[in-house]
Amino acid sequence: MTTIQQTTTEKNTLKRDFYHLIINGQKVESSNGGTIKTYNPATGELIAEVAKATQEDAEKAVQAARHAFDHGKWRKFPVNKRSRVLNKIAAIMRSRFNELVELEILDTGKSLATAQGQVNQAIEDFEFYAGAIVSHGGRVNAMPGQFHNYTEKEPVGVCAQIIPWNYPLMMAAWKVAPAIAVGCSIVVKPASLTPLTAIILGEICIEAGVPEGVVNIVPGSGSEVGNYLVEHKQVDKVAFTGSTPIGKNIMARASETLKRVTLELGGKSPNLVFEDADIDAAVDGSLYGIFYNTGQSCEARSRLYVHEDIYDEFVSKFVEKTKRIKLGDPFDQATHIGAIIDQNQVEVIDGYVKSAIEDGAEILAGGKKAVVEGFENGYWYEPTVIANVNHDMKVVKEEIFGPVVVIMKFKDEKEAIKLANDTEFGLGSAIWSKDGARTQRVAGQIQAGIVMVNCPFSAMPGTPFGGYKQSGFGRELCIETLDLYTETKSIVSYYGSRPLNPLGL
User: Fold this and answer.
1) pTM of the predicted structure, to 2 decimals
2) Does 298 qualify as catalytic in the annotation?
3) What b/e readout covers 170-205, taking b as 16+ CB neighbours within 10 angstroms?
4) Is 205 a catalytic residue?
5) Which of 298, 299, 399, 476 is catalytic?
6) pLDDT 10s digits, 38-84
7) Which candidate in 102, 127, 264, 299 is catalytic?
8) In 43, 118, 345, 486, which residue has its Cα 20 to 30 A from 184's Cα atom?
């Protein structure tokens, strides 16, 4: 077994017994002394206690962010100076890579390889936006006669950013990096289940030179702190990643103050395997598409459609490899997937699987809670493959958020597209085929924000990530994200030699 501790000689200074709020550049305790206990999903053991923000704390954070934006110097920094700070954030993160990976594993139960990939992308996000911001700006527009028009990009203001529990550091980076790159001030509310690395990211931002008040971190309950931030009149924008029902609630609350909203919500992504696909590549890519991050991913390809001509061969190989997936010590390099986030989510997953059985579906692999030797007190679920399903079943229609895939046949391209789009969601999708013309045709007709062709990867810095339909709106992880955190100001000038007299008086 290879552990993080064995790959570095550094003393882990990120792991501690207590984590503070970060408000106005200072580590502070909750105003009422409240705390959140955070547990290791793989073992069920307590990791640490975290200061639990109240509405009073959220108010202090908003006021700190407001003052930093209205009267501070961050938004006035030359772009190249903000770029250098973002690069320094990335450099500090990279120097503490192993520590961040270890903390992310402890807080989420992720496997080693999964955590390493996500921490690395979080670092690359800051590097990407450090470069992207340099070329982000307004433009000169064609005007008639003796008029001149140009636009400028100005930061939108104070942004509330609500982070999900499934990708704590990576999702925080997706939101923090572009917001501060353009000069906004932010109040981040990490998920109560996984707040640790977001708090550390806030500390690193301050260490790298982000002025006080620009980055504030206030872990707390969504119903209290999250809603307070969403409804606050001095918050100009909300960015949320999470479930569709909560996203709808946030949108309704934000409408009272007409603040900007970006929502990246749930999914039930289709995965189409055509008869001419490289079957082995499609099997391996489809395994990754559903079981990566233990299936706790909004764009997990949880609906698998296979052409009837290759269905039996594909399913045989897919199920055989599913049964070889190793659950175990998240720090062991041989472990493929880690734990479920908590016992409640285990019960949710198991409830969906039981409903499928009651509806007459067939379990081809898994189908029950897992017991992992040495980790009996953790939260585990077997990688599960379900066949003999139809689109009326809950297990096909609703997001499960666990290592569960449903598999169905299709007869032709037209039916595949119809089945793929038969959902209220529209986040991710995948196509497996050697026919380039077909992949382009099908990709053009799938109602989803991301289409992966002969590839299982959906998110890399520079590639827009976001959804159609009830999977939300707005795109993250790309240059276009900078526009979500800026206002476009249009300036029209007249430079004619004669004064204008439009009323003719």
Assistant:
1) 0.95
2) yes
3) bbbbbbbbbbbbbbbbbbbbbbbbbbbbbbbbbbbb
4) no
5) 298
6) 999 999 999 999 999 999 999 999 999 999 999 999 999 999 999 99
7) 264
8) 118
